[in-house]
Design a protein that fits this description.
- The protein is of the alpha+beta class.
- Strands 1-4-9-5 form a four-stranded antiparallel beta sheet.
Length: 299
């Protein structure tokens, strides 16, 4: 199955449009979301069936953020945050809120001549460009060809890379050759040196690594765990998680917190587990939060 997916992905690379050159195609189909490996109370396993979509192969770098933001500031996106980074060239952007990254996705869509996904109203007439609007599922044009955040389910399927029931994209143990995280030695599945990653714990906070520093998973995606947490679309509501629709779940209709996935450079191994879930307020903008954009499959 992995070999077939890899073949299809390679074929897609040859035929997809230029703006998707840095995106991997995640094929439609079922997967098991969640696991019971470590007693998580909010990640009960359940079957999800997703439509095909694209996901950027790396987290958004500060230089990529700057390019789109500069365009956006001249085209109606007047309050998009500057963001931060340890190195503007190739480290991930961080200190960006959920509102910032949703507006950035719209700005990138318009910059690339694509249709934005996010709107300030349920009639889908006013493109979301400014302010802190708590968008709901009805304020998204899901079939638009522009950029958007992945849903929580899309993120998890992509992170698993075709592996089922494993803690990480590569298996069940983790060390510093796999990802940028803080190994505290507190879990039995942590292996090797303790502390922050020895290669990147230098020159002050944050101890991020350049995007794409570690081996890709079987879907061609880099750094799906570690480095920076990644914003997802969904509101958080644990009551919704394992009773959500089987087909293309998009999270609750409303809430007070948005989903982050993937762990970060200063968190221990348990936060890097694929099934781990973290849900801060959408206005949270910290030096351990970043993102990567998705795009609906182009037929």
């Amino acid at each position: 199955m992995k070999a077939l997916h890899n073949f299809i992905n390679q074929l897609a690379i040859l035929t997809k449009p230029p703006e998707l050159a840095d995106f991997a195609l995640i094929q439609d189909g079922e997967f098991t979301m969640g696991d019971t490996l470590d007693g998580s109370e909010d990640a009960n396993p359940h079957t999800v069936n997703l439509s095909s979509f694209y996901l950027q192969t790396t987290e958004v770098s500060k230089s990529q953020w700057n390019e789109v933001r500069s365009w956006g500031l001249k085209h109606g996106y007047t309050d998009m945050a500057a963001g931060s980074s340890k190195d503007a060239a190739d480290h991930p952007v961080q200190t960006v809120s959920w509102y910032d990254v949703v507006k950035w996705c719209n700005a990138k869509s318009e910059k690339d001549g694509l249709s934005p996904c996010y709107f300030s109203d349920a009639t889908l007439t006013e493109i979301y460009r400014i302010g802190k609007t708590d968008l709901g599922n009805t304020m998204v044009k899901w079939n638009a060809n522009g950029y958007r955040l992945p849903t929580e389910a899309e993120w998890e399927k992509a992170a698993r890379g075709g592996l089922s029931g494993r803690r990480f994209p590569w298996g069940d143990t983790i060390n510093h050759s796999h990802a940028n995280f803080e190994n505290t030695g507190g879990e039995t599945y942590q292996i090797g040196r303790t502390g922050n990653h020895p290669k990147y714990a230098a020159n002050g906070f944050p101890y991020t690594s350049p995007v794409g520093s570690f081996a890709m998973n079987d879907y061609g995606l880099y750094d799906m765990v570690g480095n920076v947490w990644e914003w997802c679309w969904d509101w958080y509501d644990n009551r919704y998680y394992d009773s959500s629709p089987m087909a293309d779940p998009r999270g609750p209709a409303s809430g007070s917190s948005r989903m982050l996935r993937g762990g970060f450079w200063g968190g221990n191994a348990k936060y890097c587990r694929i099934a781990d879930r973290y849900y801060p307020k959408p206005n949270s903008a910290c030096f351990f939060i970043g993102f990567r954009p998705a795009r609906s499959s182009i037929k």
